[in-house]
């Protein structure tokens, strides 16, 4: 096994477990249903735990922050509403130990970073709070199974981008570490809970930390996080091969796909901004990025990317198409067009997405009508079999 490589799951062909349903491997047969959030909004954050999906916070049509959490239970097909302890923007969301939903940090009304983490226990249906060691907004989540790493974010100081890492254990105890990197990074967090591995990569970095004026550039820094006993750890990994802003990613079967985004040009000999269709693959079995990137059917900026069974789905992030790009991690290639199915019914930007039970993809909220209006529309693509 190569240095930095991590063992893949023992059997990547499994389509379900005692706690999960199986899934329909033929994407053309995925079902569709619609629903509505309790209030229209964009910029919400989403996560899932077991049979529950959570859509928290976001921006209302009037531009104010929402404290609403819409909760969907796949088993009962029912929606409920809860509230964040503090209305705020720039929240990070994630899951822990297949039991807890976490909503961390953010900016208050004075744009000061917060350290509060709202915690929902799906076993007891109780809410509580814990505290980040370092206040920050937009922290990134890596669910590593029994431990969740909350990485980076916006710190609000002259460095602006945070190097902080908070580990939350299954007992909700929080410990802190710091990424020893030259340039603080605001990256993309992608985790494969089943093999206990996460990547923090891409995004952008500040090449002048601590100085009055920041110098932001697309980042190639990559770190791999690995679950362990008694705590998770991280180490440097091969550089992200094509630095860019606005990429999205997801992982399944030890395959990490990072796709879309944009690059900047000089505005004279090349466009000022170019949205890309490139997809880079990292495999835990080799600890390397693929030397042959894939291509999306259309360029996508800030795409919604979710794992559904053995598939990784790229949606939205483009004004050109409502169709999905669906990567089969077993073959390392995109599946053929399925007569434009599945696809979004409502083209939207700045929406939230999560996958419940590894088989129900939910896309909610966002901006429609060329970004003028917040929507409450929810689209659910059902690949569940059980």
Automatic annotation (TrEMBL):
InterPro entries: Kelch-typ_b-propeller (IPR015915). The lineage of its organism: Eukaryota, Fungi, Fungi incertae sedis, Zoopagomycota, Kickxellomycotina. Keywords: Kelch repeat, Repeat. Gene3D superfamilies: Kelch-type beta propeller. SUPFAM superfamilies: Kelch motif. This is Kelch repeat-containing protein.
């Amino acid at each position: 096994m190569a240095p930095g490589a991590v063992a893949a799951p023992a059997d990547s062909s499994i389509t379900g477990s005692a706690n999960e349903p199986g899934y329909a491997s033929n994407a053309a047969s995925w079902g569709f249903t619609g629903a509505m959030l309790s209030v229209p909004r964009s910029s919400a954050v989403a996560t899932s735990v077991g049979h529950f999906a959570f859509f928290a916070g976001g921006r209302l049509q009037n531009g104010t922050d929402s404290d609403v959490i819409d909760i969907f239970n796949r088993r009962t097909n029912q929606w409920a509403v809860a509230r964040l302890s503090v209305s705020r923007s720039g929240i990070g969301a994630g899951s822990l130990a297949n039991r807890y939903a976490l909503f961390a940090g953010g900016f208050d009304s004075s744009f000061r970073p917060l350290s509060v983490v709202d915690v929902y226990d799906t076993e007891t249906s109780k809410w509580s709070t814990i505290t980040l060691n370092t206040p920050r907004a937009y922290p990134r989540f890596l669910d590593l199974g029994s431990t969740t790493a909350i990485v980076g974010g916006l710190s609000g100081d002259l460095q602006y981008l945070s190097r902080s890492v908070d580990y939350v254990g299954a007992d909700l105890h929080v410990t802190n570490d710091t990424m020893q990197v030259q340039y603080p990074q605001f990256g993309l967090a992608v985790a494969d809970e089943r093999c206990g591995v996460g990547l923090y990569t891409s995004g952008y970095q500040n090449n002048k930390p601590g100085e009055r004026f920041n110098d932001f550039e697309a980042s190639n820094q990559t770190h791999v996080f690995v679950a362990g006993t008694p705590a998770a750890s991280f180490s440097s990994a091969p550089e992200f091969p094509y630095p860019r802003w606005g990429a999205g990613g997801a992982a399944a079967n030890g395959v990490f796909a990072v796709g879309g985004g944009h690059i900047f040009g000089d505005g004279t000999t090349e466009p000022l901004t170019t949205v890309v269709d490139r997809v880079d693959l990292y495999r835990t079995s080799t600890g390397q990025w693929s030397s042959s990137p894939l291509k999306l059917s259309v360029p996508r900026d800030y795409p919604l990317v979710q794992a559904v069974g053995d598939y990784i789905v790229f949606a939205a992030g483009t004004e050109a198409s409502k169709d999905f790009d669906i990567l089969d991690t077993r073959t390392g290639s995109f599946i053929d067009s399925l007569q434009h199915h599945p696809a979004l019914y409502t083209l939207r930007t700045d929406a939230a997405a999560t996958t419940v039970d590894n088989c129900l993809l939910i896309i909610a909220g966002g901006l429609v009508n060329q970004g003028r209006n917040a929507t409450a529309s929810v689209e659910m693509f059902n690949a569940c079999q059980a």
